[in-house]
Amino acid sequence: MATVRLSDVVIPEVYAGYTTVNNIESLVLSQSGIIARSPALDEAASIGQKLVHIPFWKDLDQTIEPNYSNDDPDDHAVPNKIQTGEMQARNAYLNQGYSDMDLVNEILNKDPMQAIRNRSGVYWQRQFQRRLIAMALGVYADNLANNSGDMVYQVGTLETGAAPSAAKKFSRANFTAAAFTLGDAVDSIQAIAVHSVVMKTMVDNDDIDFIPDSAGNLTVPTYLGRRVIVDDTMPVRAGTTSGFVYTSILFGAGAYGYGVGAPKVPVALVRDETSGNGGGQETLWERKTWLMHPFGFNWTEGTLTEFSPTVADLKLDAHWNRVVPRKAVPMAFLDTNG
How many C-beta atoms lie closer than 10 Å to residue 75's C-beta? Predict the structure, then answer.
């Protein structure tokens, strides 16, 4: 009986191109303008260094008044200059493998690669999004530890009992209080990431509208015109006896930049003819090099549990340090009891 093999249905170069496009460009955060791919960051992700430096232009100093013209030929104005800054970012080198025994394929007469291909893009999407959220939580922790919490509005408290008051739950007033930590840059907010418990409050308040997706179906949730990303990996802190505090993240346009590196072998097929007592085994490996970075922060290497930062590492305040004024960071945080 003929058996479909991974090598029959996978062309590594084609597969690598498919997964790269499928797993990032269709991400909700990408579609909402929160993250932007940059050719410069693509290059930085490909230079073979763990730490890379990203230069940026600072805004013109708005506190300097313009010159006042006169008719004195000897009064020469002195021009100002634009200032530059630099952020340190960290490359992440990731991989994942999927294995299949030949005998299982032969007995079932099914194509495992189709199932893998259908879900692989979703897997990497979720990993990308979880790393972005973890970075935001590291920024949150750093802000509370080192910048007096000027990016955070905390209304939720622990030990609230079984039924927290409406004032401590997600509301329009609490949302705007968090958003306006950005001051007059508040209009940059484009999306909000929330736990499903918070989303339920938003729905109960009749505050969710739906806009058409790429197929024209009304399936994309929005709140006051901002995209809503629902993810139950969003942080929840539990009280000793009662109460839960949920952290929601408000993202502005350009909150993140990212680049994609080029692993030496992005996709590999490996056979082990002795596995299964000679029945054979085939393994598909995928490798990613991602450079993802929140604008306005330096990455501090410190101690890592792996060669590349894990999701847990990204959440630690010790790895982040803000290098721009608060209003220049297109991000804010809201803590509520649901």
Answer: 9
| Chain segment 162-200, per-residue pLDDT in tens | 678 899 999 999 999 999 999 999 999 999 999 999 999
How far does CA 234 lie from the centroid of its chain? 12
**φ, ψ for residue 129, nearest 5 deg:** -65, -40
- Do 207 and 175 contact (CB within 8 A), yes or no? no
What's the distance, CA 305 to chain centroid? 20
Kindly report, residue by residue over 103-134, the tens digit of the pLDDT.
877 787 776 766 777 777 788 888 998 999 99
C-beta separation of 137 from 315 below 8 A: yes
Q: Residue 170 and residue 156: Cα distance in Å, rounded? A: 9
Largest CA distance in the chain: 96
Tokens, residue 276 = 């299964």
Query: Token pair for residue 312?
Result: 């847990």
Among candidate residues 251, 213, 217, the one with its CA nearest the CA of residue 231? 251
**CA–CA dist 241, 225 (Å, integer):** 37
| CA gap 337, 169 in Å, rounded | 5
Determine the Cα–Cα distance for residues 245 and 333; give it in Å rounded to an integer. 12
User: 170 and 201 in contact (C-beta within 8 Å)?
Assistant: yes
DSSP string, 56-76: EEPPP-TTSPPP---S-TT--
Neighbours of 68 (CB within 10 A): 6
284 vs 148: which has the higher pLDDT: 148
The CA distance from 241 to 122, in Å, is: 37
Look at residue 324 in the predicted model and tell me its pLDDT: 92
Give the pLDDT confidence of 9-35 residue by residue, as tens digits.
455 554 555 444 445 555 666 566 788
Q: What is the pLDDT of residue 1?
A: 32
Tell me the Ramachandran region of residue 216: left when phi exceeds 0, alpha when psi lies from -120 to 50, beta otherwise.
Answer: left
Q: Cα 101 from chain centroid?
A: 35
pTM score > 0.85 for this model? no
Over 70: is that where the pLDDT of 3 sits?
no
